[in-house]
Model the fold of this input.
Amino acid sequence: MAAIGVLAKEAADRELLGLMLGELGHRAEGSGRLEEALEFARARATKAFLLVDGNGADAESLTRELLRQYPLMPVVVALKVRDASRAVALMRVGAAEVVAPPWTPEDLKASVSKGLRFQGTAITAASAAPLSRSPLWYLLTVALFLAAGLGMASLKRVERARAVAAARVDRWELPVRHPAGLAFDGKSLWLVDWFTQSFYSLSMVDPNVQIVRHLTAETPVAAAFTTEAMWTVSADGTVIRRMRDDKMSPLTTYLRAAPSSAGVAFDGLYLWSLDARAKVLRKHLVDRELSVIATYPWRGVKAAGLVYDGRSLWSLDAAEKRLLRHALERPADVIESVPLPEYAEGAYMAVGAAWDGSRFWTVGEALDGRGPARLVRHAPEAR
Amino acid sequence: MTRAPFLVPALLRFPGSAARQDSWGRLLKLTAGGADVSTPAALAKGDKVIVQFDLGGERLSLAASVHYAYDDADGQRGAELRWTDMKERRALARALVDVLSRV
Done:
């Protein structure tokens, strides 16, 4: 409860405002003249003044005078006539609040309580919007932030999945039409083309051909690389050991040593050849005749390639669209079978395979005989 | 944020189409982008209002829209205003910089 001085020229106004202040829990000290009001302020320690403006009383001068003597005292002015410009003028001279007619306890309560907690305007030159926001605004902002975060995470996940999928299987249409085999020399893939009698060094990230070597004296159908040499097989079964130079210079020729060859592979000690017609795997000793020291039945349908991955032999079955794994000790047994779903659509037939140290690659020939060859990089788990 | 020793009084005028009486209020907060005002006028979100007040010896008149309005603890109306006229905003920003440079 606060003691509030009421300064009104008319007794009825003093009585009405006094009653309203009493209802609000304040103690009103009414007076009709300024001197009387100042006396009350001195004697009763009033916390605020309530002035009535109009009917001959000039609240502007009264406010100025009261604030001259009590500069920290809030002054609330009650207008007899509603006039916004007058209200602003009164506030400019120092009135804390102005109450418009008709006076109601609610308006009076709001103005007096606000006047008793008089504070200054917070000023900044920043253009930031005022900070007061509705709870809904904060809720929506947080929700938007979370949604944006989740959206970004989702997009990144989709992008990552796409990149992973792209890395798992890649296919390139090649500028050749008659592939016969595929080999990996430790750095790049080499495609054997029987029609152009050429070897093509392929890019492993796009369909570009990096190097072309022509072997016009023969029709190559398969190839394999060792650290110091390369082996090629011609259509008539002649095996040639070559230098790994720019001309692929022949070192040793073995006439018809690997007939009907679907592929050759070198395991570090022996040369292996896969006979597509006889459906046998041959193990050759690298001597003057490339002697066959063992022959094993091959249990696939259509032999198309042979690869050594450092531990096992893998043969390519073009009809069954799968790679077959053979243990070196018992090559006749198939210890694992890996399907090649990339050929499931049936437009291409695999004709060669290679192992780059981590993945299998195959090359396919278009079954209509007119389309470009297709190079396929298989998923790592295809081993 | 600097606080003035008084609450800046402001005259609130409404566009003719609103057919509302002029009112008054106190600027609780004043920035170059908008203001918080305490007023007996029943402001509502979306209302257009012209705010006139003195600052740094200059009489400013700024068009604003009510961005958010609420009843404060004392029973008066509080409102968050956003200035809508860029030219007037620049004039206010100049006045604010001038006033604040004297603190």
Q: What stands out?
A: The mean pLDDT of chain B is 88. The CA atoms of residues 12 and 23 of chain B lie 5 Å apart.
